[in-house]
Amino acid sequence: MSDASPVLATDARRVAVMTVLTVLAGAVDAVSFLTMGKVFCALATGNVLFLSFALAGEGDVPVARPATAIGAFMAGAAVAGLVLQHLADRRGPWFPVGLLCEAVLLVSAGALALARNGTGAVPAADDHGVVALVALAMGVRASTVLRVHVPGMPTLLSQTAIAELINDVLRHPRVALRGMTAKQRLARMRWTATAGGIFSGGVLGTLLLVPLGTGRALLVIAAAVLLLAVTGMVTRRLGGTGAVGAG
Question: How far apart are alpha carbons 165 and 142 in whole angstroms?
Fold first, then answer.
């Protein structure tokens, strides 16, 4: 059987979509950490550590922000998991719906930030509403991409992908991409896209989005997620077999 199968073509399309979502996750964390009081809304591991520092009374880290982010992330993941499973059981468009919910939550967060703080950052004394909405959106994202299940591409963290990539290079140090099978190349592409996507998103968020202020930056990210959702919905309606989450 040839390596260049339709399944691999579908996987390549999924890798492309997951890469865009990974870049956006990096941008979300750049905006949240730099303009929302040093809290990660996508990287839950960072918030767990911040909360542990705060509870230990070290590092001048407030308890409320990481606790809010963790709670909202968990709530978003739980609700999305139930809703998307319900849609999937009925062969509904669960993937674009998941992205649409994420986009709506990000728009709400951006609008709230603009209403309360204008085009500036979210002050430390804020009531954490913006943090909660963005973390809720990222919890929805986590459940959405979990259902897609592209190995090595969770879109919200890169540690495992970096380790997988390093180990793969060490196992095959003399094998260039042209000497690999299509599956091997795709696996290395996934790991590289995840590590590079988070980094690129962080750079993008820092240089382009953070200067816009919290509200406008979140609206730009929401627009990108919404574009992916609409594209997924249109592809599904046209009967594209390579659509992410089709069926």
Answer: 22
| CA angle (38, 40, 42) in 5-degree steps | 160
- The pLDDT tens digits of the residues spanning 146-156 come to 888 888 787 77
Give the Cα separation of 72 and 136 in Å (integer).
Answer: 5
- Cα separation of 111 and 93, whole Å? 27
28 is a domain residue: yes
d(CA 223, CA 246): 22
Domain count, the chain: 1
Q: Could you tell me the CATH number of the domain that includes residue 89?
A: 1.20.1250
The predicted model scores a pTM of: 0.85
**Phi/psi of residue 189, each to 5°?**
-65, -40
User: In the chain, which residues have pLDDT < 70?
Assistant: 1-9, 59, 124-127, 157-161, 173-179, 236, 238-247
Domain span at 172: 7-237
Helix axes 182-204, 159-171, angle to 10 degrees: 140
